[in-house]
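Input/output pair, single chain:
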Amino acid sequence: MKKKQLFAVLLAGSMTVGMAPAAAFAAEDTGAVTEAEASTADENTETPDDGAAVDDQSQSEADAQAAAEAQAQAEAEAQAAAQAQAEAEVQAAAQAQAEAEAQAQAEAEAQAAAQAQAKEAQQEQQTTAADATVTTAAELQAAINNAPDFAGSIDDSDLYTSAYKILISASFNLTDTITVPANKNIAIFGATNATTVVGRGSVAGDMFKVSAGSILSMTQNEGDGSTEIGKLSVEGNKDDGTAADGSIVSVEAGAKFVMTTGVTLSKNVSTAAGAAVKNSGKLVITGGEIKDNVSTGGAVYSTGTISLEHGTDATADEPKIIENYTSAEKNVKSNIVLGKQDQSAGSIIIVGAFENQNIGYSVENPVVDYTVFQKPESLAADAFAKAIKAMSYEGDQSYGINTATGLLVSNIPTVNIDNPTSKEANTVSVTFTSDKAGTYYYKYVAKGAEAPTIETATEGGTVKAGETTSLKLTKVTDKTIDLYVWVKESESGNAIVGEGVKKDIAVTQAQNPVDPKPAAPKVTKISAESKTATTAEVVLQSDKSGTCYYKWVAKGADKPSITTKDSKIAVTAKKDCKIDLKNLEGDAIDLYVQVVAKDGSKTAVTKIATVTLKETAKTPAKISNVSYKWKGHTSATVTMRSDKAGVYYYEWVKRGSKAPTVDKMSKGTKVSANKDFTISLKDLDANNAIDVYVSIKGTDGTVSTPKKITLDEAKRPANVRWVGFSWINHTSANVTLISNKSGTCYYKWVSRNSDGTSATPKDLTSTGKQITFTADKKFNIGLEDLDSDNPIDLYIQIKDKNGVLTNPLKIAFKEDSRPKVADPTPTDTPDAYIPNVKESVVQGLDEAIQFYPNQFYEFTVIGAGTTNQDPNEGDVKWVPVYWSTAANPTQSQMHTAWKIGSGKGINKDATYNLYVFFQKYIYTGGQWQETDTIESAVYQFRSAKLTPTGTPGADGTDGSGGQTGSDPDATVMLIAAVVVGFCETLTLLSLYGTILLEAENEKKITREFKETDYIRAKDARFGKVYTAVVVVCLLLFNAWVIFFS
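Output:
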């Protein structure tokens, strides 16, 4: 039995060694071939059939199983009762170990399940952080429309918690305006670990529009704490590079827009006021940046409130609204612009304490006491003042901000000249005060002479705000002079100059001894007022003592004569003299006086005062002399006058709309009685006729009924828009326009100067070219022979059929998209050699190639004209630069190594295209000049099916390394075959020994158990037959291995 077991073990070991495929041995000697382009042309490979290896393995497994069964049977027959107990103990120990391992595995599986459940919960939490996820503009609009209605107020606290949150998980361009309809609370944000971009695309108007009763919040995506925050960038530049006529976000009255850190609004060049945000409702900015926007009406144009606050997660320099401009030249900044003021409209609310130097602001129509900043009660006064000081006022520098109240104040100095004196001959002494500190200038001229300017004035010295300054003039020969005083303030840092204040002064002259006639007294009114309907009081002063004679007449009556018989009162030099008037009649009177001095001199009869005795009914101002002028399709000026002084209010509406009330109008500036004033209108509705309403609020408190001024549409310039542009080549381009009126377009291009400016052509209607067009239909302007050395500006002017001309419109052509100068062409090249690129030759790919894995084969490309050794002027050559198996290759499909192969091999007969790309060179000026022209030529190469014997080497040979008739791989396979043969021999010997043992056992079984166990003897005979079959199979397998090795 022990011999039988020994033979069985030897048989199993031999079978195991014999089952190993010969290729496994060969693999140890096989090195991988490495090439720079080993991955190219993988799409043209095939995988060899490995079925034979699978069959070998299955046979070996069957043999091993048979041997194992024989060994098990032998061991079962040899087991003794003593060994059974030992095996039971071993089995018990193994079972205990198995139970312990099972428990440990169960615990590990439970822990893994808990982790998986936690991860799933975390993923679910991240997923549910957004109520909707979108990847396109259409999906975003649909998500907004499907959001639940918002029942709260736009002034509720913590609006974000109740907001319908939309995750924009991929960047996209808009196809239409995204509208937030009424009664929605929407918050949008981008994906984590990225900056999500929403572009304008081809949308010309507003990108986002927030309707009344709704809130739109643009925020950062804070994620779950394990990822970087997601940022959102909304970019307003149009695809075609033309200016838009809308804002990035438009906020209607009664709506709110919230912007936080992580959000950027940028790159919108717009003809509308408020390139980034046009706000008529409420705008809340706690972080983020608004930059690189261009509009004459500012990046943020607000007629509503703007709440500024430093948000919790915002960086120290946020929010940033400082790098926006009125034009592409970026000469003048225009960030926040406050429009009309209506209650709290057109103002900025400082919500919390912060000192941000990255915010600029201005006021569209500045007036003194305009409320620029509002202070909440919860904000300390010093924090309010610090916030205002930190920000930059970019508006009219003749105004400033009172940091205590947030109101506009005038930076223009106000000068008051006190009563001058001339006690000495030809000398004048003057004192004056200024409400601003700075430097004063002065100049006097003869009374009635032309007013001087500060440029011709004399610098006097410094003045302090509110303090009296003295000025003395000497050698003044004029009897009466006009003295002008200016102050150039130094408080604002802008050196604002106030208007020159005039004071007429009588100058004492030296007395002529021959004619000692004294000068007449000077009389000045101090005050005049009525006491009752029939009494009044007038106070005056004289520079000389004497007697004052007086007489009153009805207001407007002729000047009376005065004699010594009329009423009189004594006067003392330079002291108040009060005249009481009684028994007066009428509504008003004029008082005339004549002063006779003690030195005999006297004044002429002079009207000193007019006194109103009875108040007449107040009547509102009347507006007259109305005229207007269209400045453009969306701008105009209206000129008129009022018969009363006051302040004008105005508003434009669509034709047919209800007249606005004064409290809903924009406040203008002060007007004088019976003097023309002009109102400038801009951003008018481009698609509707316009009516303008103007009202005067008089200084007496009266308010006139709004006067309607109808702007004639027939005189309105056409609305022409630039809707397309393309370069044809370096010196020609095509411009597409559209106008709302039919007419003629006059146009002319000019070269742009180095400073980015260009001169507007004079009289385009006579000097420019012209093209007629139809209303609301696109028309093209083709331009040729453009300046090849300088950028181009195109000026156009439209004349409609009524003869109304638009102002010249400038269109700046973009240089960065301009095609390069065409290839150089010699002027005289009659004998130039200009080959076709297809004359190029590829060598080395004529025969079919066996493409073994990772084997590469060199080939040569000779470009057409590259063998030209004696070039002449104008000759052309084509230099190969790269090749590909794709006609329009990507960057990764362009190959510059001139060798070809396949990482996986190609095991079939096939034909493939090879595209070689050449660069054009022209011989001119004695040298080859490279051009931008690249053309391709197509060639073909063939693959051949691989042969089963041997694997070629990397150099393209049969792999013998120079030894004829031998192959290293074949040698390895032969060695493997010898090893297998040796193992099979051992197997046969083992089987032969097993057969002998089985024969001996059969005899013994037959002898001892012939009567009782005939069946076991039969099984032994079956085992001998089975063994013989196995031997035959192994012999056949050995022959197969030797043959294929």
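The longest strand covers residues 927-943. The chain has ten helices and 60 strands.
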